[in-house]
Amino acid sequence: MIKYSIRRILLTIPLLLVVLSMVFVFVRLAPGDPAMAMLGQYATQEGLDALRKQMGLDAPMWLQYLRFLGDLLRGDLGVSMLNGVPVVDQLRVVLPYTLELTVSAMVLGVLLGVPMGVYTALRRNRSADYSGRVVSLVGISIPSFFLGILLLYVFSVRMDLFPVLGAGRDGDLGDRLYHLVLPTLSLGLIMTSYIMRMTRSSMLNVLNEDFVRTAKSKGLQERIVVYKHAFMNALIPVVSVLGIYFIINLGSSIMTEIVFSRPGLGKLMVLAMKQRDYVVLQSVMVIYATLAIFINLFVDLIYGLIDPRIKYG
Amino acid sequence: MLNDLRRKQLRVFLRNRIAVVGFFLTLLLILIAFFAGYVAPYDPNEQNVYSRLTSPDLKHWFGTDSYGRDTLSRVIHGSRISLAVGVCSIIFGMVIGSLAGMFAAFDRGKIGNLIMRAVDVMMCFPAEIFAILFLVMIGQGMDKLIFAIGVVMAPRFARLSYGTTLSIREREYIEAARALGAKRPRIVLKHIFPNILGEILVMCSLWTATAIRVEANLSFLGMGVPPPTATWGNMVRTGVSQLTNAPWLSIFPGLAIMVAVLAFNLIGDGLRDVMDPKLQQG
């Protein structure tokens, strides 16, 4: 278990390096000169040269790359090309909003999806299972922004139950939570559908296994067979895909933040894209990629904890 | 023997009512997209100052936008973009992804290993973010969108074909082909590809659904095919600012996205059951 964890953690380092390099290359290959984008098309040649020098764009590519990695290590992500604010400060403000949204959506997805998946699996091919399958298929088909818009229209515009925009006042926990309800629902219900489908099929697989039949034929109570033998084993594949689902969730949160006008990484990224602020854009991408890698690491470590083949292997 | 299997598979598919609904829904969408010019009641870009922001009525079933353009006609024409991008990007992703995966599984040397590690890295990113990275680099437009989404989807095909190829590469008939002196490209294309095609096609349907959703997301973020071309995503994007006074502007194109994604998911779900031997006996 410890060996597995250490190996898994060490594997993160090259992965992180490759992903960061990719972000660097992509953003450098983007068309348009960042200095030109900042100063506008009427900038003088001297002005452009001076700015390029200041931004380090005159250095050879390999040096720029080393500087990029060095700055990242020191936690320096540069300053925004448009307003001169250090990017780290901007990220420090928006990151908690994105995290509270994605984590709460994931928690909702697990809390609803797992029991619903087990329930429908136990009632295979009956009406509850049938309607559960249809509903979850709709759930994985609906884009997060559209579900957000529907919730916003019904609960905020029509019924006036929830706030329309924003993320609530800073420091006021009640207000923050109040603003979090609809965005969490719009991402969380989609996650529920994914997790429910996975739990159902995993549970169905396990229920067909020999050891479940053995447990039943031993005369054990149905309840014990289902929850102790089948459920615990069915959970393993579900946990293993939670990382993938979290990444889908992270991608969908961009659109949800836009719909609800919530501050967050997604909103910052779209703004940077519109304004061609490559420094901010690059940093947001770095954060997204790092988050995704650490989520995968976290899920794999949990997986090691619950899967006996790894735990005792 | 083979026909018997096919007939059995067809029976499993037809017995799955949800999948049949998905099949007809997809067919309907493709027909609508193909004959958009005939089906749409109005020109999708025709402006009419006298009927601005009218709510849905008999003349304009889905209402009109702030330029007086007919929302139904725009939704109908938007289907072309969504389906074309969804289907083309999946074909593109399938070709490069499965070739890379098959090669990696067959090679199992340094290059093969490198390909699969690259696949791991690409799968780290959320699909939308990876596609945005690409679009920032290559710029916007329909062909670029297809390229970007295709590249984003390719690693999934690579992983799938890698796994399936590994499982059959040690079979006798592959060994026989090798013993007869068949070259590697011939073995891959003639003996391996036809045998993993079934599984790839099932996932094609499910991943087309994903590709359509990613296209909608990108176009909602303003990274899709640029206006005035009507795409479902950018219709929702412009409509959402008028949610309070003209909800039809965002709700109808949003519904269209959902139906299209659902249709492909339904087929994919049904096809997966068809390929599952456990279900065929029952």
Draw up the topology in text.
The complex is a heterodimer of chains A (313) and B (282).
Chain A: H1 2-29, H2 34-39, H3 45-55, H4 61-73, H5 87-122, H6 127-141, H7 144-158, H8 173-207, H9 210-217, H10 222-259, H11 265-274, H12 278-306, H13 308-311
Helix pairs in contact in A: 1-12, 5-6, 5-8, 5-10, 6-8, 7-8, 7-10, 8-10, 9-10, 10-11, 10-12, 11-12
Chain B: H1 2-15, H2 17-34, H3 36-39, H4 71-107, H5 110-124, H6 127-138, H7 142-168, H8 172-179, H9 184-220, H10 232-239, H11 248-275, H12 277-281
Helix pairs in contact in B: 1-11, 2-4, 2-11, 4-5, 4-7, 4-9, 4-11, 5-7, 6-7, 7-9, 8-9, 9-10, 9-11, 10-11
CATH architecture of chain B: Orthogonal Bundle
Distance between the termini of chain A: 7 Å
Number of helices of chain B: 12
As for the number of domains of chain B, it is 1
Characterize this entry briefly.
Chain A is an all-alpha fold. Chain A folds into two domains: 2-73, no CATH class; 94-306, MetI-like (MetI-like fold, Orthogonal Bundle).
Architecture overview:
The complex is a heterodimer of chains A (313) and B (282). With 313 residues, chain A is mainly α. Chain A has 2 domains: 2-73, no CATH class; 94-306, Orthogonal Bundle (MetI-like fold), CATH 1.10.3720.10. Chain A is 79% helix and 0% strand. Chain A is built from 13 helices and no strands. Chain A has helices at residues 2-29, 34-39, 45-55, 61-73, 87-122, 127-141, 144-158, 173-207, 210-217, 222-259, 265-274, 278-306, 308-311. In chain A, helix 10 (222-259) packs antiparallel against helix 12 (278-306) and helix 11 runs antiparallel to helix 12. Chain A is globular and about 85 Å long. Chain A starts with a helix and ends with a helix. In chain A, 37% of the residues are buried. The model of chain A has no long low-confidence stretch (mean pLDDT 85). Chain B starts with a helix and ends with a helix. Chain B has 12 helices and no strands. The model of chain B has no long low-confidence stretch (mean pLDDT 86). Chain B is mostly helical and 282 residues long. Chain B has helices at residues 2-15, 17-34, 36-39, 71-107, 110-124, 127-138, 142-168, 172-179, 184-220, 232-239, 248-275, 277-281. Chain B has a single domain (12-37, 70-280), classed as MetI-like (MetI-like fold, Orthogonal Bundle), CATH 1.10.3720.10. Helix content of chain B is 76%, strand content 0%. Chain B is elongated. Classes of the chains: A mainly alpha (313), B mainly alpha (282). Chains A and B meet through helix 1, helix 6, helix 7, helix 10 and helix 11 of A and helix 5, helix 6, helix 9 and helix 11 of B.
